[in-house]
Amino acid sequence: MTTILNVEQIETYIGQYHILQGVSFEVPKGEVTVLLGRNGAGKTTTLRSIMGLNPPSKGKIVFQNKEIQGMPTYKIAGLGIGYVPEDQGIFGELTVEENIRVAMKDNSDATMERITKVLELFPDLKKFWKKEGGHLSGGQKQMLSIARAYINENDLLLIDEPSKGLAPIVVERVMESLQDLKKSTTIVLVEQNFHMASSIGDRFYIIDDGKTVYSGEMHELNENQDLKKKYLGIA
Amino acid sequence: MELVINLIINGLATGMLIFLLAAGLTLIFGLMSVLNFSHGGFFAWGAYMGIWLFTTTGNYLLAILGAMAVGLLLGAFTERVIIKPVYGNHIRQILITLGLMLVLQEMLKVVWGPNQLPARAPEFLSGSWVIGDIVIIKYRAFIILVGFLVFFLVHFMLKKTKIGLVVRAGVMNKEMVQALGININRVFMFVFMLGSAMAALSGVLLAPYSGVIYAEMGLEFAILAFIVVVIGGMGSFPGSLFAAILVGLSGAFMTYYVPDLSLAVNMLLMVIVLSIRPEGLFKVKG
User: By Cβ atoms counted within 10 A, which residue in A2, A72, A77, B267 is the most buried?
Assistant: First the structure.
């Protein structure tokens, strides 16, 4: 099993607040690693630290044998890490097409093939190709955000709470699309929706108060009611 | 009727000059969150350099290109050396760019002396066309033409090219642009240089319009440009055109019909717009 991303004891401050106080985890290639934890535990900050948006002050982040902590965000993304933020990061005044175009690193055949594939995966995007991103529904925005991260040949996708604020039926569709993406890409998923996390994830890490406190295979968590209750508030 | 048409032409010409100054300012603020008070300095330097080149060579096209080149260079220097260290800190930005504005202003006096300099339009743009009872001053028509031309060129760039797409995306969410693998610092510099060149173009166009140039002209016009940026909506390029025309026209009409209110009209416009739409007429959606 090859490790594609290794996060070692990172500590991150936002302003004066010490948000991450020792987060560590490994992401095996080809798997979905889920970061779980209560609201405010530090899951989003962990993804933002990996992307260099909130750079860690201590610790190491190694992506494909290269230390990336301290690198500017655009260089980290250029190494092959796609990012789907919690707020989706859609450019509201750009059309769906323009949101996709701005993300394209090149016009190669491979990129065009991936766009075709992603439009098959998310037919709504094709339907609303000329519609402004700001006028899409929550679910469509989420699909566009995932599509944008997927169209370049990224080796790793960081996806932050894709089910947040979506209706259950839309969550199911997003889940199906992630199941499909999982076949070709390694994913780090931050998710509060335990149903989604457990059905997509291969392994999990629980973050609590800015530290990783527990990890294991996803099926272990499914069977461990005490752990779920203690850290996730799920009975 | 002819009076109204003449007032419209005057208002449009003034509006276009303010638009050229405000467009750069709004893009710089929208994309980089930089309050650039030195923008008027680029405008004044454009005017002086252009008029000097025109007086020296007699070539008006060279004067315009030279003024824009000065704008580009000043913009590049200011972004890299002055602005870069103070990104994200508005108080420092205001202080340092105001300081730069004063330095640029005083440098004009050092190079070209403290007195006003005369500025005239080139021969082929002097005089006027008379259509019936309507007198159209050629130079004003020229300013309006250049203003619209620049608007369409920049609009085309913003809408149809990849760099334009990145600039528009950056105005909405610069963090996400970086997360897509784009070096936003290069985009910042490009926009800053573009904005500065447009300010310098505005300066060189204004000079023959007003007939004289003076070192303090930058600060005076920059205030109008800031009003336009606020009315049009911070970061909105079409908003700056609309607001500049609005300010130009209202200025022209008020000066003629209610001269006592002519100075206050811009502030009044700003107050009215802000009370109805605090985000300006054209809000940029993130």
Answer: A77
Closest-CA residue of A relative to B169 is: A91
Rounded Cα–Cα distance for residues B224 and B237 (Å): 16
**SS3 state at B210:** helix
The closest CB to that of A74, out of B169, B173, B184, belongs to: B184
Q: Structure tokens of A67?
A: 């230390």
Total number of residues shown for chain A: 235
pLDDT value at B286 more than 90 = no
Is the Cβ–Cβ distance between A210 and A37 less than 8 Å? no
CA distance B167 to chain A (A): 10
Contact B165 A102 (CB under 8 A): yes
The whole-angstrom distance between B89's CA and the closest CA on chain A is: 14
Average pLDDT over every residue of B249-272? 88
Place of tokens 């109008």: B224
> Which tens digit of pLDDT belongs to each residue from A15-46?
999 999 999 999 999 999 999 998 889 999 99
Looking at the complex, report in whole angstroms how far the Cα of residue A133 sits from the nearest Cα belonging to chain B: 10
Q: What is the Cα–Cα distance from B86 to B246, expressed in whole angstroms? A: 33
- pLDDT tens for residues A62-74? 999 999 999 999 9
Interface size A-B, in CB pairs within 8 Å, comes to 63
**C-alpha closest to that of B168 among B156, B179, B181:** B156
Distance CA B46, CA B250 (A): 26
pTM of this structure? 0.82
- B183 in A contact zone (CB under 8 Å): yes
- Per-residue pLDDT, averaged over B251-280, amounts to 89
* CA–CA dist A216, A201 (Å, integer): 11
* B179 closest CB neighbour out of A51, A98, A101: A51
**Of B169, B175, B285, Cβ closest to residue A102:** B169
* Domains of chain B by residue range: 2-216
A81 or A114, which is more confident: A81
H or E element in which residue B5 lies: helix B2-32
Check whether A235 has a pLDDT greater than 70.
Answer: no
- ipTM rounded to 2 decimals: 0.91
Looking at residues A219-235, what average pLDDT do you find? 79
Q: Dihedral through CA A165, CA A169, CA A175, CA A179, nearest 10?
A: -170
